[in-house]
Amino acid sequence: MPGRLHYPLYLLVLFIIGFSFLEIYVRQVKPKVDLLVFTGKRLSPSPMATWALRDAFSGFKPKPGKYRLSLGDNPVSKTVNQHSFISTPELTIAKPANTIRIVFLGESSTAGTGINLADEETWPYKTIQIIKDKLPNQNIQFINAAVGGYTSFESYGRLWSRVRFFQPDYIVVNHGWNEMYYFKDEDNLLELNTDDNGDWDLEKPRYKMAMYQPHFLDPYLSWSQLLTHLRIKFANPIAATGEVKPITTPTPLKTTFGKKGLPVYQTNLKLIKSAAEIFGAELFVIKQPTLIVSNLPEKEKKRCGYHLHGFDHAAHVAAYDAIYAVIEAEIPADHIMDLT
Q1: pLDDT tens digit string along 9-32?
Q2: How far apart are CA 287 and CA 297, in angstroms?
Q3: Alpha carbon distance 188, 179 (integer Å)
């Protein structure tokens, strides 16, 4: 009889051992996740602090290293080379003889972040492979100098301060979505991308952002990385459902974008063009493809982060058209890549 009474105790011990083993395993192989941050219950340091470094001339840049990204079923490997270029093979600063170097400037869609893409799945990487196939006897190197969060302002800073030393032959610019921040608060453009002290602090919390729908059990699950990852695995990301907005005071979206921001983008493009001429590089500018078009269904509109810029769908369509018009005004037609 006493032996039978011990069965529950044996089972409890086995459960604790098994759970502990899985907990240790998850902590070793999975990225650490703060569930309360992911559900908007806790303010955290900027996520950028885990992957970015301050840069004197472009605000920030990626930390060199190898990363396992995404909380989905298929995490991807992402690399940043020793010169802080994302998804770019290692290369020397001095350009080898008889070598063509192509530089890509842009934001997350070019860097392959946001929705994380493995190095070889980024469009610059694929583009270079196509070019190499067509020119098998030519030595071609590339630099993906794009970074998630960059506008043309940061890209210009990185181009003249860092990229120029790699002697680029061709420069391809792909900006659009992040330029919308110029149109959000047009009377405070001088303070763009700075905090209250005029600084850029990667560690400073900025806001709460719920990535997953909160649940009353979250405080009881958050101590365990195993339970946290299981919780996230079976949760629907808010970004995919469009059901929950960032945890900020809701404000009505404006029906127009700030026109004062457009000359800022135009000047940035002129600066990039001038720098390319000084460096002896040929410049190409992409009309950025976008989901935001005039006839977009309401279901798809929920996937668009209009709240980030403070103006509505129609204003975003008009803003993109204005950006395309600037490109047409500043760049020769045969150097415009129209991917719209």
Answers
A1: 888 888 999 999 999 998 988 878
A2: 22
A3: 15
